[in-house]
Amino acid sequence: MAQMLSAWDERYAGEEYKYGTQPNAFLQENASRIRPRGRVLCLAEGEGRNAVYLAGQGYQVTGVDASETGLSKARRLAAEKGVEVTFLQRDLEEYHIQPQAWDAIVCIFCHLPPVLRRPVHRACVEGLKPGGVFILEAYRPEHLEIGTDGPPTVELMITLADLTEELSGLRFDHALECVHDFSEGEGHNGKGAVVQVIGMKK
């Protein structure tokens, strides 16, 4: 994981925001599903664009990422937008998701090896309050054929079948594999083959 962290620190090192400062479009379209003023946990939050957006909508947001380089830019973005976000530097191998504590958990392009991804997803299900919402968008293996930014190996990508199994306990209001165009900074620019999930805690 140390090598992976080093790569993210390098990616976030420039002055520009690698994935822009606007929220992920799928998250923005579906944020209203979260209870007003609810507690939201954003995993692999990087430079903060999604957490800052949600805080601006009135949610109580905690953003977690392993890269201090990314989080320093996230704190700067929050200050520029005049919102409060709790940013925590934590590796997801070590971060404890408190059970039944969150009105929403957001995973936008949070790509983990399966040995870590599975327990993190189980912890996400346990971490939601009844009626809480889980929002995910991530690259699926077919994205390798497109060749724009994304994980370099199939192992780090996710299929809808994976998510259906790993998020058992949620009711899926939206579950889709699709290809669409991204314009989210330099990092997400062009077509992307993704999986999208919105799950509600029963």
Polypeptide structure, described:
With 202 residues, this protein is an alpha/beta fold. The chain has a single domain (2-14, 25-201), classed as Vaccinia Virus protein VP39 (Rossmann fold, 3-Layer(aba) Sandwich), CATH 3.40.50.150. Helix content is 31%, strand content 31%. The chain has 7 helices and 7 strands, in the order ααβαβαββαβααββ. The chain has helices at residues 2-11, 25-30, 49-56, 68-81, 114-127, 143-146, 160-166, and strands at 39-43, 60-65, 86-89, 102-108, 128-139, 170-184, 188-201. Strands 3-2-1-4-5-7-6 form a 7-stranded mixed beta sheet. The mean pLDDT is 92.
CATH architecture: 3-Layer(aba) Sandwich
CATH T-level topology? Rossmann fold
- The CATH class label is Alpha Beta
Helices and strands, in N-to-C order? Answer: HHEHEHEEHEHHEE
What is Rg? Answer: 15 Å
Distance between the first and last residues' Cα: 33 Å
Uncertain ranges: none
Strand order of the largest sheet: 3-2-1-4-5-7-6
Give a count of the beta strands, DSSP E runs of length 2 or more.
7
Tell me, rounded to a whole number, the average pLDDT: 92
The percent of residues in helical segments reads 25-40%
Class per helix and strand makeup: alpha/beta
Largest sheet: 7 strands, mixed
CATH superfamily: Vaccinia Virus protein VP39
Please, how many helices? 7
How much of the residues is beta strand, in percent?
A: 25-35%
- Describe the global form: globular
The structural domain count equals 1
